[in-house]
Design goal:
single chain; about 220 residues; mainly alpha; two-stranded parallel ribbon
Length: about 220
């Protein structure tokens, strides 16, 4: 890979990793609600899960999507459903200190639940239904792969995203951690959680258009 192409890959990896998206929104919210230490499994799940998906797609797993045309639309629909579930979980989570104070379960709102950060496995699996992550992987593999050395190219692209992704996503956790003082007030924290849930839903706008097109295609196919 030429130095110019490698530089372009590094810029692409940093920009796509640090800009807002479902992963960074969830990490930011987790940094606010749970702090850095409890968010570490979530963070590592994002970074390592994304790296594994990048390597798998770059090595040819993407051909499965070509062989099974209905697979990717199905994953997109599952991803949308899971994002809605995560948004609901953030919006209705009771503040951690509320649970720690031993508030009786009967006294809590029926919609609230004990706050819990995502686990390593949950965050890793989420990459496969995260539309932004999948498109990042596909674009990187197609634009920066090495046709004459596919394995070396896949490893190089994966390594760049691995080393660029860690500080980029960690930044969102640290930003969230830095806001904890301001959000000590329960009303502010609840308003923040609802706002982050709405932001997560808003990030689905491009995905919703794709799902609608997939649905129309299936209806036309069934009608024909």
């Amino acid at each position: 890979m030429s130095p110019e192409l490698f530089s372009s890959l590094c810029v692409f990896a940093v920009v796509t990793s640090v800009t807002p998206g479902p992963n960074n929104a969830l990490l930011f919210a987790s940094g606010v609600n749970h702090g850095v230490r409890r968010t570490m499994p979530h963070l590592l799940g994002v970074v390592l899960g994304f790296a594994f998906m990048q390597l798998a797609l770059a090595l040819g797993v993407g051909f499965v999507f070509d062989a099974l045309p209905g697979l990717y639309p199905t994953l997109r629909a599952l991803g949308a459903a899971y994002l809605l579930y995560l948004a609901w979980r953030i919006a209705t989570a009771a503040p951690p200190d509320e649970i720690a104070e031993g508030e009786p379960a009967a006294a809590r709102p029926r919609t609230s639940r004990a706050a819990r950060p995502m686990t390593f496995l949950e965050a890793s699996a989420f990459q496969w239904v995260n539309p932004k992550a999948v498109m990042m992987c596909v674009t990187a593999a197609s634009a920066y792969g090495l046709p004459d050395r596919p394995v070396a190219g896949a490893l190089l692209v994966t390594a760049v995203f691995l080393f660029a992704g860690m500080p980029c996503v960690a930044l969102w956790v640290l930003l969230g951690r830095g806001m904890r003082g301001f959000l000590q007030d329960r009303r502010r924290l609840r308003a923040f959680n609802v706002g982050m849930a709405l932001l997560l839903v808003a990030s689905m706008a491009p995905l919703a258009g794709d799902i609608a097109r997939d649905a129309r295609g299936l209806l036309l196919l069934a009608a024909g």
